[in-house]
Amino acid sequence: TGDIRAVLDWELATLGDPLADVGSSLAYWTQAGEVPDDAPTAVDGFPTRAEISAEYLAVSGRNKRTLGFWHTLGLWKIAIIAEGVRRRVADNPANAAAHGVPTARDVQAIIDQGWAVARESGLTS
């Protein structure tokens, strides 16, 4: 029929456990009060990461700790990507995007969020 039923980002999609993609989605899911504050998911009406996680776990029967692992890994992947962007811009300022370059503080905030998710999921003390 030509109707779009799904969109898949082949560059970041993962073969294997579906929780890998759910974890990455949660990592990119910005909530109100977080940076970037202009992300579509930060607007009123979108569910929170906790709501998404609870619904997915209830429907799938999967383990919260396992989802926490993939969410943590997703955040650390974003931190690595952001640090790579910082390095490319440091090497050649022409690589800077129009919307700006992640700062060291931005990268550390993502890493800290990863640690928080790991602790909340019982992955570390």
TrEMBL record:
InterPro entries, per database record: Aminoglycoside_PTrfase (IPR002575), Kinase-like_dom_sf (IPR011009)
Domain Aminoglycoside phosphotransferase, residue spans: 3-38
Ranges in coiled-coil conformation: none
One Pfam family here: APH
Name of the protein in question: Phosphotransferase
Organism of this sequence: Candidatus Nesterenkonia stercoripullorum
